[in-house]
Amino acid sequence: xxxxxxxxxxxxxxxxxxxxxxxxxxxxxxxxxxxxxxxxxxxxxxxxxxxxxxxxxxxxxxxxxxxxxxxxxxxxxxxxxxxxxxxxxxxxxxxxxxxxxxxxxxxxxxxxxxxxxxxxxxxxxxxxxxxxxxxxxxxxxxxxxxxxxxxxxxxxxxxxxxxxxxxxxxxxxxxxxxxxxxxxxxxxxxxxxxxxxxxxxxxxxxxxxxxxxxxx
Length: 216
Known about the structure:
- The chain is α+β, with helices and mostly antiparallel strands.
- It has helices spanning 32-40, 73-80, 92-101, 114-125, 165-179, 192-195, 204-214; strands spanning 4-6, 23-27, 44-45, 54-56, 61-64, 85-88, 129-136, 139-149, 152-160, 184-188, 200-202.
- Helix 3 (92-101) packs antiparallel against helix 4 (114-125).
- The longest helix is centred in the last third of the chain and has 15 residues, at 165-179.
- It is globular.
């Protein structure tokens, strides 16, 4: 199956043309308009240094519905005892930098290239990208960031320097977004870490139907 090469025109091919791995297209740029169009279309960028921009729409899609959030007794205790101080949008640039630098099992490098970093900082300044921070003893212990459109939050990355810090961020975020009317958290691809909180895989067709109604 051919892979589409993007140019300056602000369009994406139909995700039905994606490869079995979920690659929709390569190339293009990370200007805000393209990123936001991508998210609204169920497409996100994911690539490494030295590669062209690769645009993905995997099938199935890994998502968390706020109503299905699962919080263990141990995490409820951590949150109740306020082990971490949780803030929103207080240190976006620090969070994305830590996400870029954190060493992850099975990964030799990072997909958060300098170009990606600049693009999401730009989205943050425009009010579309947001961060959640967990602080302990005045130090940044963990965090996450993502993009918010309509009634969907598209999670991008998270990190922990202290055990359970990123979970505390995600749980707090989901509970906060639920009160704001957000109906879907997109986690893109499977991770055991987020599955323990209630995330599950759904067919891409179902995911795209949800986006059509929730991204306005």
